[in-house]
Amino acid sequence: MASQSETPELPEHEFDTHIGEVENVGTEEELEKKLSSMGRFGFALSSIMKMFFNRDSDEPFHAEWLTIDEYKQMAEESMQNAWNTLNLPDWKLEKRGSQKGDIVESTQTEQFGKVYRFTGIVDCPAKFLYEEFKNNITKLPEWNPTILKSELIKEIGPGVDLSYQVTAGGGRGIISPRDFTILRRMAPLSRAGAALRPPDGAPHCYVLAGVSVPVPGYPPRRDLVRGHNKVGCWCLYPKSVETEGGKIVERTVFQWLMCCDLKGKIPQFVLDAAFATVMLDYIVHVRKFAADSKAKGLF
């Protein structure tokens, strides 16, 4: 991160003028082009944005181990919060992806603020994808470059664990990598959103929810900004499709709910562009993983 002495100076009135010029960008590519077109002002503005956007909070770190029952209760609440938020009405379109049907939407909530939802189709069974995300969290960086590190800290109980992740930066380098300590809750759900247990029948969907919690031994790092996941989940819906040849294939309706506090003083227009791009980039890697897995005969 550049120090203040290394950052080009930009008078306050000019900073306000030029930050206003980039407020209407819709993607990271548009942001980069706009900054490039500003010449020396764009370079100065980009440097200042990096400095402010990637300042970690000075909050003191405190963490202690909770009881298994406390973790389970928190995990259950986080899953229900995610399920309820995912199914709210009145979503607003943020961006369409290059693949037909891919959309990123958003809505404003009283409890969490602005939340984002991605929806798209993945060519593999929902149960396969669910078990991969659930059981092989440490292997995510092997096929997904948006995840730099993924570590299982501790298994709490069936469908509940603590994990540590480092995510790649965004905004064409303006937003630096973040790390997270996450309490996960994973379960097949009924149509009403209740966790199912064998032999409860076929699930309506599979959910992997996560919420940030402090974990002993995992304080914020000096070289990273500690992000905070307020509410979020992957929700995987099984979908049977008949091909032109009459064959029935299993696909996944993939929904991703995201609401993260990335810390730093990041304007909403930058977050909108960054979150939409992250979600649309992520699904590309998920689809490639599914295609490679299918080629290997894993489903």
From TrEMBL:
<feature type="domain" description="START">
    <location>
        <begin position="89"/>
        <end position="295"/>
    </location>
</feature>
<dbReference type="Pfam" id="PF01852">
    <property type="entry name" value="START"/>
</dbReference>
<dbReference type="InterPro" id="IPR023393">
    <property type="entry name" value="START-like_dom_sf"/>
</dbReference>
<dbReference type="GO" id="GO:0031902">
    <property type="term" value="C:late endosome membrane"/>
</dbReference>
<dbReference type="InterPro" id="IPR002913">
    <property type="entry name" value="START_lipid-bd_dom"/>
</dbReference>
<dbReference type="GO" id="GO:0140284">
    <property type="term" value="C:endoplasmic reticulum-endosome membrane contact site"/>
</dbReference>
<dbReference type="GO" id="GO:0008289">
    <property type="term" value="F:lipid binding"/>
</dbReference>
<protein>
    <recommendedName>
        <fullName>START domain-containing protein</fullName>
    </recommendedName>
</protein>
<dbReference type="GO" id="GO:0005765">
    <property type="term" value="C:lysosomal membrane"/>
</dbReference>
<dbReference type="GO" id="GO:0005789">
    <property type="term" value="C:endoplasmic reticulum membrane"/>
</dbReference>
<dbReference type="InterPro" id="IPR051869">
    <property type="entry name" value="STARD3"/>
</dbReference>
<dbReference type="GO" id="GO:0099044">
    <property type="term" value="P:vesicle tethering to endoplasmic reticulum"/>
</dbReference>
